[in-house]
Amino acid sequence: MTSTQPSLTIGAVAKRAGVAIDTIRYYEREGLLPEPLRRASGYRSYNESVISRLRFIRRAKDLGFTLEEIRDLLALSADRHRGVKAVKQRAEQRLASIDARIAELMRIRTGLEQLIEACPGRGDPGHCPILRALADEEPQA
């Protein structure tokens, strides 16, 4: 049997790709995977190429790409003329987004660190700078 002939069950695909069966169904509904052929029994039947596509999707998700961005990357991966350049641009955009998120997290971390240092860890809860900050009150000097 060739790799283009559908022969794999959804369970076999899920196991080999390292994803859940429900994930495969979800990606099908979202258009990230092509609609599989159906056997006479009604069961889905897949070929080997869907495993590579699932691994692509999983790795892209691990890098922080959204499903919409992954859909775009999948389309670009087939574009022989502008695909690589466009994929690089998408990756650069993702990196910029990650850098912005890291900067925001560092700002949050610094603020939390300052609140922790200012909190004596005992006494009246009304004087706790952490609780006052969460209640949107101005900390007392």
Please tell me about this protein's structure:
Helix 1 (10-17) packs across helix 3 and helix 4 runs antiparallel to helix 5. The longest helix has 36 residues, at 83-118. The protein is mostly helical and 141 residues long. The termini are far apart. It has six helices and two strands. It has helices at residues 10-17, 21-29, 49-62, 67-77, 83-118, 129-134, and strands spanning 37-38, 44-45. Strands 1-2 form a two-stranded antiparallel sheet. 60% of the residues lie in helices and 3% in strands. The chain is elongated and about 70 Å long.
Contiguous uncertain segments of 5+ residues: none
Oligomer: single chain
Shape: elongated
N to C succession of SSEs: HHEEHHHH
- Radius of gyration in whole Å, from Cα? 24 Å
Annotation field: number of helices:
6
Features:
141 residues, mainly alpha, 6 helices, elongated
Compose a concise summary of this entry:
By secondary structure, the chain is mainly alpha-helical. 60% of the residues lie in helices and 3% in strands.
List the helices and strands and how they pair.
Elements: H1 10-17, H2 21-29, E1 37-38, E2 44-45, H3 49-62, H4 67-77, H5 83-118, H6 129-134
Antiparallel strand pairs: 1-2
Helix pairs in contact: 1-3, 4-5
